[in-house]
Amino acid sequence: MSAPLNLAEQFRLWSRVAMLVGAVLLFVPLHYLWRLFRLPSPWPRHFLGTAARIVGARVTKIGTPLRRDVFYVSNHLSWIDILALGGASGTAFVAKAEIGTAPVVGWLAGLNRTVYVKRENRLGVADQINQLRDALEDAWAITIFPEGTTTDGKSLLPFKTPMLRVLEPPPPGVMVQPVLLDYGDAGEEIGWIGQERGVDNARRILSRRGSFALKVHYLEPFLPSDFPGRKAIAAESRRRIEAALVATLGHPLRPFAFAEEGIGYKNPPRNGEGDQPKANGGG
Predict the structure, then answer these.
(1) What is the tens place of the pLDDT at every residue in 1-26?
(2) d(C-alpha 83, C-alpha 119), whole Å
(3) Distance CA 160, CA 145 (A)
(4) pLDDT tens track for 125-143
(5) How much is the pTM?
(6) Which of 99, 144, 173, 177 sits 20 to 30 Å CA-CA off 274?
(7) Is residue 282 within 8 Å of residue 75, measured between CB atoms?
């Protein structure tokens, strides 16, 4: 069980929930209105950017994001990554299939053209790649988190390559742009890691005091044809993100561990009721 919230924390939690509901009531009808007239809808991007600010993120873009025909490859700390990146660039995402079935969150993610994949469904990889290729044709930008889980902002896991098969061979004109998400000193607190349940993570973040800086570093893009094959593309993306992260931290990366005690919260019971613990990965 997570620790009970005091009155100030409850006030912050429910105030932010109310503002998020207000943002949904404002932007979703506008989105459907634009779709009704078959117009390109800017409202998912505005909603995600607004939601990121409501939950406390003060997003700064560093570098120049490509606007279209781009495959963003990013490190991953939190569900807030999606709000920040979507708000900053209007990108669509590749996410775990479980996100698509989550109440409200799955519906909102679907409005932003999210592609859902089942990482454990190895026999269905080809179909998932086809979905991703279709999404890349329909969307000007798409983002993947190839670590396959969320970390603490001071580590970087090996990049998994199945979703990069869409770049074998790369569609004409498509570039790859690595992205570094830097939460600074707040990263270890914000990160959704270990066995923390999703509802507890959201509760903890929404009741948190104040705001936090989130710098989105758009690194130098490259042609995937210059690094043939998904493994080479993943390696080059990771190399660039690691170099930028080390430069930002000012020290080498550390091995990733589920250090819940070190960042101020504990594992819930494994047999608790409600939302299941997050085992080895977030959104």
Answers:
(1) 567 899 999 999 999 999 999 999 99
(2) 22
(3) 9
(4) 566 667 777 766 666 788 9
(5) 0.84
(6) 144
(7) no
Q: How many residues does the chain have?
A: 283
Q: Which residue has the tokens 């869409």?
A: 166
CA gap 152, 136 in Å, rounded: 29
Is residue 66 within 8 Å of residue 197, measured between CB atoms?
no
Helix H, strand E, coil C: the string for the chain is: CCCCCCHHHHHHHHHHHHHHHHHHHHHHHHHHHHHHCCCCCCHHHHHHHHHHHHCCEEEEEECCCCCCCEEEEECCCCCHHHHHHHHHHCCEEEEEHHHHHCCCHHHHHHHCCCEEECCCCHHHHHHHHHHHHHHHHHCCEEEECCCCCCCCCCCCCCCCCHHHHHHCCCCCCCEEEEEEEECHHHHHHHCCCCCCEHHHHHHHHHCCCCCEEEEEEECCCECHHHCCCHHHHHHHHHHHHHHHHHHHHCCCCCCCCCCHHHHCCCCCCCCCCCCCECCCCCC
Q: Answer for the pair 233, 159: CB distance below 8 angstroms, yes or no.
A: no
Q: Is the dihedral of CA 31, 35, 38, 41 positive or negative?
A: positive
Q: pLDDT tens for residues 157-175?
A: 999 998 888 888 888 889 9
Tens-digit pLDDT profile for residues 102-114: 656 667 677 777 7
Number of CB atoms found within 10 A of residue 17's CB = 14
Q: Determine the Cα–Cα distance for residues 229 and 236; give it in Å rounded to an integer.
A: 11
Please provide residue 257's backbone torsions phi and psi, each rounded to the nearest 5 degrees: -140, 155
Sign of the Cα pseudo-torsion (153, 158, 164, 167, in order): positive
